[in-house]
Every structure is written in C-alpha cells, then in structure tokens.
Design a protein that fits this description.
By secondary structure, the chain is α/β, with parallel strands linked by helices. It has two domains: 202 residues, 2-enoyl-CoA Hydratase, Chain A, domain 1, CATH 3.90.226.10; 47 residues. Helices cover 48% and strands 13% of the residues. The strands form two sheets. The protein has a six-stranded mixed sheet, with helices on both faces. Helix 1 links the parallel strand 2 and strand 3. Helix 5 crosses helix 6. The chain is globular and about 65 Å long.
C-alpha cells in the first residue's frame, strides 16, 4: 500500500488530495455506493497507511450520486456469505467479519481526523463508516439505518454496540439496533449523530471547508486528541487525567506550541506546521 497519497489512484473509489485534505468518494452511484470484499480491504489498507502519510492532515469520506453508502453489496458480499453459511464455512464467515472490523480499527487508529459527509442512503456498513468517523455532516435527505436485524443479524457489527451508544446514548442505539429503522437527517442531528445539517448541494464543500480548517491547525496535537479520545473509553477518570497530563506535556514539546505563543505575543495568527 502506498504512503505517497499525492499521486495515488485507488482501484475501488476516487481519491483527491488538496491542501492537506484527502477526499474519498465512494463511486458506484448506480447501486448507491455499496461496498465489496475488495473495497472493504482497500479502505482498510488506506486508513492503515495514513499513519505514515504526513501530507494528509484530514480525511473526508462521501458518496457520489446523492447517496453515502448502501452497505455490503447484495450480490457481491451477501450472496457469497450465505453460500458460506450453507456450506458450514464458519471460518470463512469469521474471516470476513474480522476483516470488516479491521476497517473500523484502522479508521480509529489513523492519526488524521475523519469527516463523513452523509447524504441519502447511509445503511448497514455505510452507517458504520459514518459512525467510525470523528465528525459527521449530514443533510435533511439522509437516511441512516443500522439495519442488521432486518437481515437476521445482530446489531453487534464492526464495533457498533461499543461506539454508537457513546455517540447517541444507549437507549437510542438499542432502538435502532432492535428495529433496524432509519433515522432521517433531522433526527440524526437532534440525537447527536450528525454534528450539523447542510444543504445537499453544499455538503461536500462544507465538509471540505471544515476539514481545511482542522488541517490548518496543530496536526500533531490533533492526532494526540484523537488518540486520547479513543483510548480513554476504557479508562477511569484518574487514569485518564494522568494520560492527558502526559499527552499534553508531549504536545508542549512541539514547535507548534511555541509558534502559537510567539504569534499571540506579536498579535498575529499562528501558522502551524505539525511539528
């Protein structure tokens, strides 16, 4: 997998990089941008490699054609999984579910903040992609569904039972898991799943503008913030305070910390360089 994302051409989605903002566009609009075995793996490998990509400061993920992602492709993923089930291939099924979970692990572990720009259908694995992002912008037309129960599966998919209750609360997450129903954009914003709603024709532009704002900040410190937010889920308060004391002391050793002070003293806006 490349670490030079300035000239990278992925096989299963579109990629662009401008001003430190990398944009992933899921690009199968005729099927509402479903995932396949190969696109799952390529996304996983991309997020893993981003740990070594200093040119990428923030990532935006969106879908083409007025939809975000309809989940796993019915014929390219669901059909083969059913055939594995019929053949009693538990090993194959577990290989798949671990691989998809590895995508979420890679998203949470990559140092760059991830912004999901969600319009239209955002279902199944698509809802997981949005959930695993750090920020989510949506539209009134968005329909977010953790619809696993509707296909005979548990809501426990790719870390959803751990992550979603932390975003919207346990009771609301349970309702979505047990019913498989969709949240519309207004409900998703009210419940805290979306940070804000945007007009559909401005969604990607606003997501990229927010990404640009974050990318202009202290990127080393942003990566530390993301790491602490993730790690502290399993900590007590005292342990978290000590972890943050160590993290902040490390950030205070960066040149960006000094740049901010000297810019403030000179009544100027700081220019961060991520070191």
């Amino acid at each position: 997998m490349t670490t030079d994302f300035t000239a990278w051409t992925p096989a299963h989605f579109r990629w662009s990089l401008e001003g430190g903002v990398g944009t992933v566009l899921l690009a199968r609009p005729e099927k509402k941008n479903p995932l396949t075995f190969d696109s799952y793996a390529e996304l996983r490998d991309m997020f893993r490699a981003l740990a070594y990509a200093s040119a990428v400061k923030v990532v935006v993920i969106a879908g083409e054609g007025g939809n975000f992602c309809s989940g796993g492709d019915v014929h390219e993923i669901i059909g083969p999984l059913v055939r594995m089930q019929e053949a009693g291939d538990m090993g194959g099924l577990l290989d798949f579910t671990r691989m998809t979970g590895d995508l979420v692990k890679a998203m949470r572990a990559c140092p760059q903040p991830i912004i999901a720009a969600v319009d239209g259908v955002c279902a199944g694995a698509g809802a997981i992609l949005a959930m695993a992002s750090d920020l989510r912008l949506g539209t009134a037309n968005a329909r977010v569904a953790f619809l696993f129960a509707r296909v005979g599966l548990a809501g426990a998919d790719m870390g959803a039972c751990n992550i979603l209750p932390r975003i919207i609360g346990a009771g609301r997450a349970a309702e979505l898991f047990y019913t498989g129903r969709a949240m519309d954009g207004a409900e998703a914003e009210r419940w805290g799943f979306f940070n804000r709603l945007c007009a559909a024709d401005a969604l990607l532009t606003e997501a990229q503008a927010l990404a640009g704002q974050i990318a202009a900040g202290p990127n080393f410190a942003h990566a530390m913030t993301k790491k602490c937010m993730h790690q502290e889920w399993s900590m007590g308060v005292d342990e978290a305070i000590e972890a943050e004391a160590q993290a902040q002391a490390i950030c205070m050793q960066t040149r960006d910390f000094g740049r901010a002070y000297h810019a403030f003293a000179a009544r100027q806006r700081p220019v961060f360089e991520g070191n």
